[in-house]
Amino acid sequence: MKKTMSKTTKSNFITYGMVIVIYAIVQILTATGSLSSLFKGLLVPLCIYVILAVSLNLTVGILGELSLGHAGFMCIGAFVGSFFSKCMDGTMPDGLRFFLALVLGAAVAAVFGILIGIPVLRLRGDYLAIVTLAFGEIIKNIVNVLFVGRDAAGFHFSLKDTMSLNLAEGGEVIVKGPQGISGTPKDATFTIGVILILFTLIVVLNLINSRDGRAIMAIRDNRIAAESVGINITRYKLMAFSISAGLAGMAGVLYAHNLATLTALPKNFGYNMSITILVFVVLGGIGNIRGSIIAAVILTLLPELLRGLNDYRMLIYAIVLIVMMIVNWSPKAQAIMSRYTPKNLLNKKKSAKEVN
Questions:
Q1: Which of 72, 146, 165, 257 is the S-S candidate for 136 at Cβ 3.0 to 4.6 Å?
Q2: Where are the domains of the chain?
Q3: In degrees rounded to 5, what are phi and psi of residue 69?
């Protein structure tokens, strides 16, 4: 048992170390001026995608349920965090305000995860995917027709236009329907993004290796057998779903604080965003947390790295996707890759020395 625990701990520290090493390399490249402004602009989105991929893997890989509503939870976190920061701007220190925005955005997204999960998690497979996809679209459309203003009398809400808010003189419109929220403080940085990635990894990896995590994976592997030994199916499903939603909401807050204007456009929080996050999970390996990180980084940077090869960019991108899929899902490819792990290579060297 001790050996298994030390193996797990070592694997977790390798994952944390991988993130820290990448952060250190990026900081060195930035300090030496080797990083272009284009790639500097991609650093925070990169952190956002990694958090989203790891958190969705908790639902898809560990719980074993196909969810396409992750962009909806991200949208909730983004608008709640942005709204809070806009209202509290200038009333408290920037660091405290941003921290509270992160906590509030994650908490509200997690609550929505529970509320949506109670009826939705009774469904399975394609039905669950369709309902969660519909949830994401409903959230996006509600935000696009929501107007919120503030004056001396308090907050005013409307689903028509800014005029119907009936704001007193000196009042301010905060949420402007399809125009979203503008003027959110740009507090998001690469360092904060990496800290949030590490926090996400700590939460997810510790959950996976805990008693609750083993119960969740038991439900994934055999629902009937898990229920027969007394595992509360609803409780553990809601736990995984709400934690995943909360982490997506946290990524949304980071996303909102990286933009001058936050709008609920289809490209930001629509169907394509949910599919993109799912692609990171699938290509990185369902249930493979480290693979989700690598897939999110590669698939975010690759289009930019290939921008100089305009004629062949999408062709190379497609080839990389196919190769990643083969490597991650082919048993033969995995067997070949396992032969060349550092541990196996070390064992081969030891046996060769013994023979000599």
A1: 72
A2: 44-267
A3: -105, 15
